[in-house]
Fold each of these.
Amino acid sequence: MDADGELPGRAHPNEPVYTGLSKPGSFRQLTCGRPKNSPSSNPNRIINGVLARKNSWPWIGAMMREPDFQFCGSSLISDQWVLTAGHCIDSFTDDKIIETVKIIFGVEDLTAATPANKYRVTKVIRHEKYNNPVGSTSNDIALLKLDRKVHISNDTMPACLPTKSVFEKPYVQTAPNNRRICYVAGWGHLVSGQHGDTGGKIGAGTDQLQQVALEIMSTDDCKAFLKGLYTEKTFCAGHDSGKYDSCRGDSGGPVVCDDGPEHGWSLHGIVSWGFGCGQPKAPAAHTHVALMLDWIYANIPS
C-alpha cells in the first residue's frame, strides 16, 4: 500500500501506567496501549479484513489532504506527537503539510469526524537518511507534531512504543508454523490493484476502519522475500498464502502487537511498502520501530 503506488512506497482495560514515551523517566506519564476493546478480539481476517471494533484502535490517525481525502495512516505515540511513514509525506514540502494536511483521530468511520477530531500539523521531522541511497526504502519514518494535545480517553490514546524488538523472546517464535501474530489497520483499498471509485466517500478505499491479523516473519524469511530491497530496519509481515494484507492507502499506519499486561499494545511497525497487495509469497515490508527508538527520542523534546 503506498500513498500513490506499490513499490517502493506501498501507497502501496484496566487503568494502565505509562512509563513515558515507552522510555522510563523521560516523558511525563500518560496512558498508552490499553484500548477499551482489544484488536485481537476480531476474527483473523484490510485485504480480507474485518471492521475494527469501536475503541480498539484509539491510536490510529487518518491523514487527510484537501479537500478531505484520506491518503495515509499514522499513529499517536504521545498526546501531541504522531509517527507515520516517510514516503507518505515525501511529495509534500513542510509548509504544504502544515497548510493542507489534517489528521483525524478518535473515529472508526471517517464520515463521522467532527472538527474536534481533526488536527493540524505544526512541525514536521523527516529522517535525515530516508531513502538514502535513493530507491533503498530505508528509514521510512517521520514525526509530526499536532496543533494541540489530544484528550486521552477510550477514543484517543497513544500506542506504547516497544521495549523489545518484535523478534525478542518471550514474545515471538519465528518458525513458519508458529509465528507471532500482530495486527494492522487502516482505511486503504480492499482489493489489490483497485483504482477509481472504491466506495469510500473520503477514505482511500473505505470510510470504515478495517483491521487484519498478520504473521511476523523471521529475518531470514524476510531477506529471502525482499532480496536486495531488505534493510536492517525493516521486518516482513503477512501470510504465505497472500490472502490477508494491508494495501494502498494504509501506508504509514500501525502494526501493533500485544506485549502482555505489563507493556500493553505496542507499536512495532509502520506500514511501508510491498509488491502489490495480498500476493502469495510477497509479504509487506514495515519499518521496525524498535530499531528507530533512538531517533524518535532524540527528536521529541522531553
Amino acid sequence: MIASYEDFAHRSRLIANLEHKRQLPVWDRLMFIAAVATALLELEQRMKPKDFQNFFKVLCTMMVKYDEKGDEMLTHLIMFIHQRAEYNVPYTDSIGSWVISNIKGSTPTEAELQVSPMIGNYLSDSLTSWWTRA
C-alpha cells in the first residue's frame, strides 16, 4: 500500500505527515482494512445474506491474525458505510472518510476530507477490475 501513499501524500498534508512522523504502517493498516471492506461490499451484493454473514465471521477471525484489532476495525468500517448509505453517501466517500478520520484520530475538517472520495475511488477502481474480469 506504500504505492497508494505516494499517490495521496501530495494531495493531503495529513497523509504526507505520516512519513515525517514515521507512521507509514498506519497508512498501510488503514488501507488494508479499507481494501478488505471494499471487496466485502462487492461480495455482499453477490452472496445470499446467510452465506455472507458466515463468510464475514470467518474473515473477522482471519483479520485478527493480521491485526489484533482488525476484526473490530473492519466491523466498524462496514457499519459506518451502511449507516452513511442510508443518507445516500457513496460508499467510496465513506471509506475515504473513515481512513482520514482514523489517521487524524478525531473528526477531520472539510479541507482534510476533500481527499476522501479519491481514496475510496482508488480502492474501488483497483478492486472492481479484479472482480469483473472475465
Amino acid sequence: MNAGKVALIVVSISLFGLFSFLEVSYQANGATGARLAPLVEALPQINNPSYKEGQTALLVRPEIKEEPKKETITLGFVGDIMLDRGVRSSVDKRGGDYSYLFQKIKFPKTDILFGNLEGPVAYGGEEIGNLYSFRMHPMTLSVLKEAGFNVLSLANNHIGDWGPAAANESVNNIKDVGLSSVGWGKEDLNDALTIIEKEGIRIGYLAFSDVGPAWLPSKKDEAGVYLATQSNLETYIPLAKKEVDILVVSYHFGEEYEPESNKRQQTLARNSIDLGADLIIGHHPHVTQEIEEYNDGLIAYSLGNFIFDQYFSPETMMGRTLLVEIGPSGIHSYTPGTSFLNGTFQIEALLWDKEIVF
C-alpha cells in the first residue's frame, strides 16, 4: 500500500472520530437531537492537486434552512356546475372536449377550490323521472381537476335524479380522479366531513341540502344526502369544528331566481356560524345573492351559476366567484368576482372586485 492511500485512510478515521466526539459532547451538554453547529477543522488537502505542503483548508458542515410556512392560504368558491343537457350538447358539437368550457379563462391560484356539482356524475343508475333530470359524464371530472377544483358538493336536489346507485358511483368516480366530495354519505361524521390540510391549517367542509331529495336522507347504514335539518346542524357542525381550524358549510337553499336571501336562508346560515362554522357558501337560486359578514363569519347566500345551460336571462348566465384568505384563527380577507358565460356555455370572462379586509 503506498503512502498516499495510508494517509487517506488515517484522515478518514480521524474525521469519523472527530464527528463522533463532537456529537457525544453535544449530547452530554444537553443538546440531544439538536442540529450540530458548523464544524471547522484544519486538515491537509491530501487528494487536492493544488495542495501545497503547509496549507490548511476549512471543513464546514452547512446548516439546512427550512422553508417558512405560509401564514395564510386561499380558498376559492364558484357556483353551480351542471355539465349535462345543453352544456353536453354544446361540447359534443365542438369535438366532445369539456376543457373547451375553460379555454378563455384561468382561475387564480387557490390552495383549495370548491364548487357545487349539480347532479350525479356516473355511468350507471336508473332515471327516476324528474321533470329536469341530470347525469354528467365521468370524463368531466378530469377536466374539473385540470381546471383546479379540489372539492365538489353533492348536496343538492339533483343528486338523486338517477337514484342512489348513481349517487354512490359519483362519490367513487370523484375519488378515483383524486378529488374530494362532500354532501353524500352515511350518518357518520367521518362520512359527512371532508378535511384538507394546507400549510398546517386544517380546513373542513360540510354540505347540506334544504331542497331535497327528501326521499334519500343519510342513514346510519345507508348513504344519502345530508339534509339541512336542525338536528343535523346541531350534530355535525360542533363536532366538525373540533377537528379543524376553519369550517366551511355549503348549503343548497333559497328560492330559485330570487336576487335576495330569504328568512330561512338567513336562519340556517347564521345559526351555523353560531354553532361553529366560519364560512357559509350558498347555491341553488341560479342567480347571485348578497354577501354578509356575521359574528366573525362570512356568508355568501348564493353564488349563482358557474356553468349551466340557463340561457334565458343575463342573470343566469353569470355567477359569483369568491376568494377567501384564511389563517388558523379565521378569515383575513375576501375578494368577490363575477364569471360570465357565452352562448355556447363557455366561460367567456372572469372579473374580480377589490379585496375586502375582514
